[in-house]
Amino acid sequence: MKRYQSMFAAAAGLFLTLVGCKDDFAELNQAKDSITSAEPTYLFAQAVLEFEPSPYMMWFANASGFYYATQMAVPSGSVTDAVIEGSERQGIQAISVLSYVNALKYERSLMTEEESAQYEGVAAALDVLAVYLGIYDTDICGDIPFTEAANARYGGTLTPKYDRVEDLYDLWLATLDNAVEVFSTASSTGQIEMSTQDVIYNGDWDKWAKLANSMKLKIAARLIFQDYDRAQSVVTEVVNAACGVMDGEDDDFLFHKADENTSSNDYVYHWNNSTLWYAGVCASQPVVDFLLANEDPRVRFFYEKNDWNSEVVDYFLAQGRKDDIPSFILDNVETEMVNGVETFKAWTGQGEPWVRYYGLPVAYNAASSNSLYGDWFNYDINTLAGSKTYRPYSRFQEELIRGRIDFTLPTVPNGAVIEDTDDNPWYGMYMTTAEVNLYLAEFAAYGVSGLQSASYYFDKAVRASVEEYDRLASLNKIPYYGKTYNYDSHEEVIDLQDGEVDALMQHDAYQLTGDRMGDLEKIFIQQLLHFTYQPVDQFATGRRSGVPMFGSSLLPREDYTANSMSADRYPRRTSVSDPSPTDLMYDNILESYTNQGFSTTLATGILNSERLWQDKGAPQWGDGPSLP
């Protein structure tokens, strides 16, 4: 379907430049008579384009800090004390949508009461998007400007107050309740219909209602250590709501913004420059081993295959360089003698494609120990003629982050050059059926009344997560999905196969037993896995759960206390800096730091001990789940 073509130019011309940088609201100050009128549905369309929970700089510079804090990824140079430096506070993402929320309020103020009432659905949908981004912002920033933000050009202040997280949670729950009511009565209240202007749900208000209702669970999960009674109440409201919760592919908040070039190709493809690859964020050995041990198909979607296909292995054997093949790869190779030459015969172990996925060891400074870990970190010894280097471990799948990336198949020196240079519109996954059911499984394990069993939700969640990532891999056309490039006869596609999910659910790690603490660990592991491409959500989950756990038999956290990297040194929030004295928000920013007890001068453990409001009382990294 063609998306956002004539609307792009119209929305760009009708709306003025919006603010996007941190704590800078001065650009929103314009006289009312300079404001150009905008068609409300175009405002919504443009807001969707600007909606971005994880902007480029988050992926490029900050995501690594979130991954390393949870130990769900490792740096390509191995773990050193640099991984506990954390991430700097990012720009406030909610501003991008709040600008349109306030623009629509202004447009509706110029209408008759009857006409304005027709746009309640559009306004509620914008509110939902703003709340989603607000939750994201407060997960890493704490208090943020929200209620007074992005409104200066409509008579508001240039110095909006910082709203407290606890107050925002109250506001957002009420906002989502109102949205559910508006969406649920849209057919009887004559709401303006959106179709092509709404690339998320094509104007289906019932699906918007499910999203709004489901999002309340994100807030409930963040209330656990501050107001558990309220959290339980919210969960009960959600499961009893007539609109229901997200339940299946059609309900999932998973979409792409555009099919064709617009004023910004980033809307279509995401960004052109490398993100996690450049930052050196790689698969973690414990995580990959957990996925492989349980034959979890998501390992094939989360990470890329390594470079050691059977043709590369065979080339090394033919050149008499068997000793240069990483030992862990050779462990899964069966050879045979052909005309006096040892050659590749077959993959052993789990076979293709499983044998192409390896995580980097998590031992401290492993790269400096060639005798133990040289196969992983010193793979440049395998550089051959033509300057080809064969990476033995798996990186994150970059094509799940951006659609403008060229893939070059690993081939032998002087072999064929096989490339995939197509640019593919990028699909993002935000909130889905899997996330909803993982929260419900968690609350059922706590003992919240009125829910089905934790096992019921857990099973549904894991199945949905696998299917959602399979769908995401297919839509983003990642390498080896649906094709093997006809180079290696032993190559296998990575697509989800019939029966794999059923087989997955037979593994002990994917079954709940009724042991509350054990079940909670399994639930949190699945939450962490599901958030592999939502690093802020993954960070927030690891922070409130204490998982991965030290000493776990499932997915253990590495203890670096002996290396002066104890758990209480790992950051639990982003760092903040002193504002410029000339910043209009100077006083407000400093006041927000004081109110939250934040230091701007970092010292050992400061980002761990100075916690966000919602994080106070949560278990330390690695301590495991704590019952509320």
Task: Explain this structure.
- Helix content is about 40%, strand content about 5%.
- It has about 625 residues and is mainly alpha-helical.
Question: What's the topology here?
Answer:
Blueprint: H1 6-14, H2 40-50, H3 56-70, E1 74-75, H4 95-109, H5 113-117, H6 120-141, H7 165-184, H8 205-222, H9 228-240, E2 253-256, H10 265-269, H11 276-279, E3 281-282, H12 285-293, H13 299-302, H14 310-318, H15 327-330, E4 333-338, E5 341-347, H16 370-377, E6 407-408, E7 419-420, E8 427-431, H17 433-446, H18 454-475, H19 500-504, H20 516-530, H21 535-545, E9 549-550, E10 556-557, H22 586-596, H23 606-609
Parallel strand pairs: 9-10
Antiparallel strand pairs: 1-3, 2-8, 4-5, 6-7
Helix pairs in contact: 1-2, 2-4, 2-6, 3-21, 4-6, 6-7, 6-8, 7-8, 8-9, 8-17, 17-18, 17-20, 18-20, 20-21
Characterize this entry briefly.
The chain has 23 helices and ten strands. It has helices at 6-14, 40-50, 56-70, 95-109, 113-117, 120-141, 165-184, 205-222, 228-240, 265-269, 276-279, 285-293, 299-302, 310-318, 327-330, 370-377, 433-446, 454-475, 500-504, 516-530, 535-545, 586-596, 606-609, and strands at 74-75, 253-256, 281-282, 333-338, 341-347, 407-408, 419-420, 427-431, 549-550, 556-557.
Distance between the termini: 47 Å
Structural class: mainly alpha
> Which strand order do you get reading across the main beta sheet?
1-3
Shape: globular
Residues in helices, as a percent range: 40-55%
Number of DSSP helical runs? 23
- Number of beta strands: 10
List unreliable stretches of 5+ residues. 1-35
Major sheet characteristics: 2 strands, antiparallel
Mean of residue pLDDT? 92
Give me the Rg, rounded: 25 Å
